[in-house]
Amino acid sequence: MNSGTLYIVATPIGNLEDITFRAVRILKEVDLIAAEDTRHSRKLLSHYGIARPLTSYFDHNKNIKGSYLLERLAEGTSVALISDAGTPCISDPGYQLVRDAVAAGIAVVPIPGPSAAVTALSAAGLPTDSFTFLGFLPNRQGKRRERLAGLAGEGRVLIFYESPRRLLATLADLRDTCGDREVVVARELTKVYEEFVRGCLTEVIELLQNREIRGEVVILVAPATEENTADIASSAALLRRYLLAGSLSLKDAVARVVRETGLPRGEVYAEALRLKESQHDQ
Ligand code: SAM
Questions:
Q1: Binding site membership of 83 for ligand 1 (Cβ less than 6 Å)
Q2: Which residue among 40, 81, 82, 91 has the greatest number of ligand 1 atoms within 8 angstroms of its CB, and so is best to mutate?
Q3: What DSSP assignment string belongs to 95-113?
Q4: pLDDT means per 10 residues in the chain (282 residues)?
């Protein structure tokens, strides 16, 4: 028996018109649609008159549901995977199903469409030749700063997904760890209140801090340059001297560099963690 095809179908990230003719046709033709949230997707499906059987596939049932879907695919059922918004598998469930389907010899066909990261990048006005998509940062500030400190020297545009609640805290962490560089906050893309807030991190924080930030956001950060990492480089050189000499603890080395450079403690601390991490990696 021929196995069915697994279609990975991109759906709108806000504006219902942002779906391709092909996506609508495939969703009308498949035997089964696996959706991250069936209630949420019903709105889109009924808007386009799509009435195919629907089942759920989300983070917490992905193992059991994944096995079920693979069995059905093996029997010849065609399945379309959709997520709540944008492209499945991109900061959304699906990767494991795709990997298992490929391993089982099942055809996996992408049906392209929007993804918030690329949509934001296309109109951000930042370099587009190379970029690094990092999905969501850790919720906890310590881990988040550590991750960001490790990215401070990255010569490509950085793209993050973030919740509106954490936006200001993340922008402040970015400024502390990566220097006051250019940033774009893309909010509510393709929706009524679509907005791009552009400027250096300090300006954007000032613009946003007295507002209630609602909706969905993407953060895009300009690449590291010698200019915007000069402060970080000088604190790194001092830290290296004090830490690697082995005479000072991390805390004391950070305190000394803060005294000598006048740089924010958070920034110096994040740099110290990054140095320690790179020592471990050697
Ligand atoms: N699979 C989706 C994609 O392809 O973009 C991403 C899903 S992820 C769970 C949801 C995050 O994507 C949001 O928290 C936000 O950071 C970003 N996002 C999704 N839709 C957006 C929109 N219309 N405007 C801005 N950001 C959006």
A1: yes
A2: 91
A3: HHHHHHHHHTT-EEEEE--
A4: 94 98 98 97 97 96 96 98 98 97 98 98 97 96 89 94 97 90 97 97 95 96 81 74 76 84 80 75 54
